[in-house]
Structures are given as C-alpha cells and as structure tokens.
Design brief:
Layout: H1 15-26, H2 32-49, H3 55-58
Length: 65
C-alpha cells in the first residue's frame, strides 16, 4: 500500500459514526491514517459494486401511519 497521497478530505461525523470510528481505532494495530484510507477504499469499492448498500444509511424512515 505505497500509494502516493494526492488529496485530503475533511468529513463531518455523527455521534454514532464517531463512536464506531473510535472503537475501530482502539482495537486496531494499524495507524489511524492507514486504517481510514483502507476503510474509505473498501467502502468506495463496495458502493461501486452495489450502490444499494447506501440505502439503509440515506433512506428516510417511514412516517407513522
């Protein structure tokens, strides 16, 4: 994983995402930047394969009947 770094991204996190990220980082033997780059790459590849994986995260809940 010796890719040349060509950009930087700032992302706002929800409390839920921040909690997930912190738990992932504390349990990982990998450096934070490496882990985040790999997670981003894996996520982008999965989205490209099947964009429907985004639906649970962006779908609006149904209003009560």
């Amino acid at each position: 994983m010796a890719d040349k770094i060509v950009g930087k991204v700032d992302v706002e996190l929800s409390a839920e995402d921040q909690e997930l990220l912190l738990s992932l980082l504390e349990d990982s033997p990998f450096p934070k930047n490496l882990l985040l780059r790999l997670a981003l790459r894996i996520g982008m590849k999965e989205i490209r394969k099947d964009p429907a994986v985004l639906l649970p995260y962006v779908a609006k809940p149904n209003p009560p009947a």
